[in-house]
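Figure 3 (text version): structure tokens given as input.
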């Protein structure tokens, strides 16, 4: 990151371009002795921070408040007042007001976990559809050479971390090569509970087994009801990967995944 006082502009622009939810923190007023002056800015995401408003308990509390906005998908900015001495035990002794401005992507994103046979067909069918696809797998060799323009290949040894970027405009499709990984992803998604759709490939039996484990893990019943499994529209019983993918793509369109799709 640049040392320029305006580095936050490029940091914010890059995050917005990547459609990663973030919060811009601005010191609005700084009275008395304070770590940084009014106008100082920093940007934070669920996992990263760019810049500083002076460190110490002030920054710790402001970042925590900003991440709470992200967790709650809050749309409105908030003002926070921090008397540094009494409340935060900082030796400065002044008072600071910070503005927290959350930014969320308006675009809809489909996260496809799994680059196996069904994953390949789903991404192929959705080529040209008005949705951004993040295609995630641990196995780089599984991805085809040619990726559709609306899809981004992500090779990750910890695919569950990608879920931290989800928001209410995120559609999640779990179709990996591993039942254990499927479960880990589903549990993490339901714990965060911030998505438009969560689909899991599998049968009614697989769903029942997953629900038993998820209940034992403390996932509430109302969240379990958000899980779609089996996936795909009714009436298509074929088991060929392309047949499954056509059925799943139709269901995603029914769920209003694109601006022009009909609501179900």
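Below: residues designed for each position.
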């Amino acid at each position: 990151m640049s040392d320029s006082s305006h580095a936050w502009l490029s940091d914010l622009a890059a995050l917005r371009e990547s459609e990663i939810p973030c919060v811009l923190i601005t010191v609005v007023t700084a009275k008395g002795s304070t770590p940084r002056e009014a106008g100082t800015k920093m940007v934070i995401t669920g996992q990263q921070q760019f810049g500083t408003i002076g460190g110490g308990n002030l920054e710790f509390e402001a970042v925590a408040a900003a991440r709470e906005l992200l967790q709650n998908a809050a749309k409105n900015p908030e003002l926070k007042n921090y008397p540094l001495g009494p409340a935060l035990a900082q030796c400065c002794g002044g008072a600071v007001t910070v503005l927290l401005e959350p930014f969320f992507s308006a675009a809809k994103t489909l996260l496809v976990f799994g680059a196996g046979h069904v994953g390949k067909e789903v991404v192929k069918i959705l080529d040209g559809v008005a949705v951004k696809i993040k295609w995630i797998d641990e196995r780089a060799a599984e991805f085809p050479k040619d990726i559709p323009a609306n899809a981004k290949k992500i090779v990750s040894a910890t695919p569950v971390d990608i879920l931290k970027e989800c928001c209410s405009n995120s559609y999640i499709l779990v179709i990996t090569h591993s039942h254990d990984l499927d479960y880990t992803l589903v549990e993490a998604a339901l714990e965060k509970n911030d998505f438009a759709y969560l689909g899991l490939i599998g049968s009614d039996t697989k769903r029942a087994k997953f629900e038993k484990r998820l209940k034992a893990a403390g996932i509430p019943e109302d969240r379990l009801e958000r899980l779609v499994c089996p996936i795909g529209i009714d009436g298509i019983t074929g088991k060929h990967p392309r047949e499954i993918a056509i059925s799943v793509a139709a269901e995603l369109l029914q769920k209003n995944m694109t601006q022009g799709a009909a609501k179900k």
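The radius of gyration is 22 Å.
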